[in-house]
């Protein structure tokens, strides 16, 4: 849960920066939000979640 909240917060901040920098207009941003919202209710959502969790685990296991 903490990871998904962090990802949502990070993506939200990126989207606000892009909108304020005029790189992303409000219309396409709304379409992206709605696409993500409806994608979350499809059958592919668990696969995307597992993929993102495995990427986060891989990054977490990297030691320098």
What does this structure look like?
With 64 residues, the chain is mainly α. The protein has one domain. It has three helices and no strands. The protein has helices at residues 2-20, 26-39, 45-61. It is flat and about 40 Å long. The protein starts with a helix and ends with a helix. The chain crosses the membrane at residues 31-52.
Task: List its salient traits.
78% helix; 3 helices; 0% strand; flat; mainly alpha; single chain; 64 residues
Proportion in β-strands: under 5%
Shape: flat
Average pLDDT taken over every residue: 83
Order of helices and strands: HHH
Radius of gyration from the alpha-carbon trace, in angstroms: 14 Å
What is the share of helical residues? over 70%
Count of distinct structural domains = 1
Structural class: mainly alpha
- The stretches of 5 or more residues where confidence is low (pLDDT under 50) are none
Largest sheet report: none
How many DSSP helices? 3
Keywords: Membrane, Transmembrane, Transmembrane helix
Transmembrane segments: 31-52
Protein name: DUF2304 domain-containing protein
Organism: Streptomyces rimosus subsp. rimosus
Short structural description:
Keywords: Membrane, Transmembrane, Transmembrane helix. With 64 residues, this protein is mainly α.
Which helices and strands occur, and which strands form pairs?
Elements: H1 2-20, H2 26-39, H3 45-61
């Amino acid at each position: 849960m903490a990871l998904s909240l962090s990802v949502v917060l990070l993506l939200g901040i990126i989207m606000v920066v892009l909108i304020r920098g005029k790189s992303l207009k409000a219309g396409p941003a709304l379409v992206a939000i709605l696409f993500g919202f409806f994608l979350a209710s499809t059958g592919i959502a668990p696969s995307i979640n597992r993929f993102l969790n495995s990427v986060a685990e891989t990054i977490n296991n990297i030691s320098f």
